[in-house]
Amino acid sequence: MTDMYAQLRANVGMMGQILGDTMKEHLGEAFLDKVEQIRLLAKDSRSGDAAAREKMLSLLSDLPDEELVPFVKAFNQFLNLANIAEQFHTISRNCDELVCVPDPVEQLLGRMLGGNVDKKEMLSTLKTLDIDLVLTAHPTEISRRTLIQKYSGIVDCLQDLENPQLTEREHKNQMLRLRQLIAQIWHTNEIRRERPTPVDEARWGLSTIESSLWHAVPDFLRQLNDQVEQATGTQIPTDMAPVRFSSWMGGDRDGNPFVTAKVTAEVLDRNRHTAARLYLKDVVELVHELSMEEANAELKAFTKGSCEPYRDVLRTLRCKLRNTIDFLNARLEGHQPEMKRDDIIWEQADLEAPLKLLYQSLCDCGMRLIANGQLLDMLRRLACFGIHMLRLDIRQDAGRHEAAVAELTRYLGLGDYAHWSEHEKQAFLLKELSGRRPLIPSQWKPSDEVAEVLATCRLVARQPQRALGSYVISMASSPSDVLAVLLLLKEAGCNYPIRVVPLFETLDDLNNAAACITDLLDIDWYRGYTKGMQEVMIGYSDSAKDAGVMAAAWAQYSAQEQLVKVCNKAGVKLTLFHGRGGTIGRGGGPAHKAILSQPPGSVDGRIRVTEQGEMIRFKFGLPKLAVQSLALYTSAVLEATLLPPPEPKVEWRNAMQRIAEESVDAYRGIVRHEPDFVPYFRAATPEVELGKLPLGSRPAKRRVDGGIESLRAIPWIFAWSQNRLMLPAWLGAGEALKAAADRGELPLLKEMERDWPFFNTRISMLEMVYSKAEPNLARYYEECLVPEPLRHLGTTLRQRLALGIDAVLQLTGEDSLMAHTPWNRESVRLRNPYIDPLNFLQAELLGRTRREETPSEHVQLALMLTIAGVAAGMRNTG
């Protein structure tokens, strides 16, 4: 049997050698020898060699200050290169079939047709799929954008080196380029000097589209069209876009004081500017390509019989796109430019209609082959991205809207809205929504916070409808939360129906979600406003932080089931918006499996899902990877719609309810009710130090003076992943599974794991997290950092971890974790000798910085770098 990882190891070894040569040239052979010695000792330490562990710890603690930063950089960059090699391996032409997913585009329709799905039904569903991937900044990519671009260059080199036709000279040139890129990475500062602004984050999102998705979308649709044509004999429409993209970058103001109406306006202009610039490139290429003279009657009439009708139309579009770019440049520079509406691309139809005219003319004149080239690619980009590139969501906390209405009612002498009952609030809001007179007096001067809420509403009102996605209300709990936003938008002059979406985040809110939406849809005025469509967002991060992953997962599942019933009864189409994070503790995990584990009927051809931070790069950072991800999303939503999972049996539900109740008690027993938990958490993890790392634009806490309850889900997860205990992703789950097994329910659990996709996915995610947890490393952090009176809690937590691992292995019947996913095990094994020294050194540096009043700059920077390195090794920040 061939070694399925041989090529991966070869690439890792080759790049590691180049990195070593770079370090040797920069810092000398003695330094490189020390790095290699520590790496080998870490490997031996993993095998249980206590002497190797002690020697490694001694070498790490004796590192002089001036060697700390280069030492950490060495291990960080090896982990980044290993990530690149692994990412490339999944799209490599040499990839073993046991490692790589089969080509998802080729597999897309096979399961459908094999499952006795009618071809016409499948085609109809495919044409109406509405998959919206919402790019979010938090926790934001820990790698700098300049480094990400160099990592992409490395992938290009690896791809070229695979070509068996390369001449010796070409091979030498590619190796030279690879060495140059790795040297550039080594000599570039890994950590941003300043925290990114919301505009920086938005620009980062746009760069992902420009470098990858702009190419991947037409490639995916061309491959999909080939499969559909082969299976059904028909082609997909030119304007079909099963997957579209939205963004929270620059629109998510929940707890982020730096996202203002002014910032959102700039991001909207930048989105549109990027789209115009990229479409201009396409049009310039088409001017060169479409030199034909023959045209249909419609195009001849449109161009008044021009001898180059296609070029005439394209030159006009080229001029309009250049004008659009000039117009937006002026706006971005703070001017209010004058421009005739007919001279720029103002609506999508301004670009789409002329292109469709050209496409139809080419097809009518027997030039379909030409029509289906770059022109069709441009039409498909337009269908996916529009002229605004990304539809921007607005997100704000429900309390900010309530405060705005309350301040207004107090000013008008109507009382304090904030203290009214829900019934009184609804009565007031509906009366004003139905009335015609303006509510807000022109002479009113609201507080700064309320003025900002109103400024955002006015900005929304000024935008073309297609520029925006949804207005999401975080911490929503009642119908008045939705109605208040609608009233504020009406008062701002918004004359189109924007989707206003309640986000249910905590355990209580999820349990109350169906009742809230029932009450909302019982309001005649609101039912008319929805036009038969309702979107609801399910929060994964905060519900998991509130109740633990197992109880949160069951609450999310149950809430979706109930919401489907409520909307079906009301005759309203439901779109569920899944606010999943990148990590398991925040609802992350393989998207394909996650979608197929949703309740039957909850997908129904429509879904919105957040894609956040570094996961955007891992899924969409390379065009080939992006094509795979687009195909996986499309196939999963198609399958969940046409071949939904079975309804869970009553006994499965009852067992899951018991597990959820016991897991939340076990989780909260530690997190909320153990008096030593918060001081232990703050001592045993770099939670305090994380706040100093310039990761994202948003503060780590919702309230500066708040405790653990106000800490955002992202730093909460990030901190525990740094000390490798991974606590939020498993605490409570193992205890509940063991209790169920002790009750004699193990045969039932095995049946659930085998036959119920929801439960199978939960156990699979637990396995992955348990395999990443490192209790011995967590114990070392404790020894270095935690006061003696608190250490009893660490012992308890490690016992809980061991109990959970035993419970999962008992359930799966395997001898080891992830026995059925050797690729994931190999991935973890490959990284450990490089992450472990970073963890040991991080614990040492945390101790130093906490003991010393003014730790040296070397120590502080090295500590920040260890945080980045462990995140790279674990492949997530939160």
From TrEMBL:
PROSITE patterns given for it? PEPCASE_1, PEPCASE_2
EC assignment: the record states: 4.1.1.31
| Record has Lyase as a keyword | yes
What UniProt keywords are attached to this protein's entry?
A: Carbon dioxide fixation, Lyase, Magnesium
Q: Which cofactor does it need?
A: Mg(2+)
Catalytic residues as annotated in Swiss-Prot or TrEMBL = H138, K545
Q: Which Gene Ontology molecular-function terms are recorded?
A: phosphoenolpyruvate carboxylase activity
Reactions the enzyme catalyzes: oxaloacetate + phosphate = phosphoenolpyruvate + hydrogencarbonate
Q: Which InterPro entries match?
A: PEP_COase (IPR021135), PEP_COase_bac/pln-type (IPR022805), PEP_COase_Lys_AS (IPR018129), PEPCASE_His_AS (IPR033129), Pyrv/PenolPyrv_kinase-like_dom (IPR015813)
Q: Which NCBIfam families match?
A: PRK00009.1
Q: What's this protein's function?
A: Forms oxaloacetate, a four-carbon dicarboxylic acid source for the tricarboxylic acid cycle.
Q: Could you say which protein family the record assigns here?
A: Belongs to the PEPCase type 1 family.
* Subunit (UniProt): Homotetramer.
PANTHER family, alphabetically?
PHOSPHOENOLPYRUVATE CARBOXYLASE
Task: Kindly provide the name given to this protein in its UniProt entry.
Answer: Phosphoenolpyruvate carboxylase
Give the gene symbol.
Answer: ppc
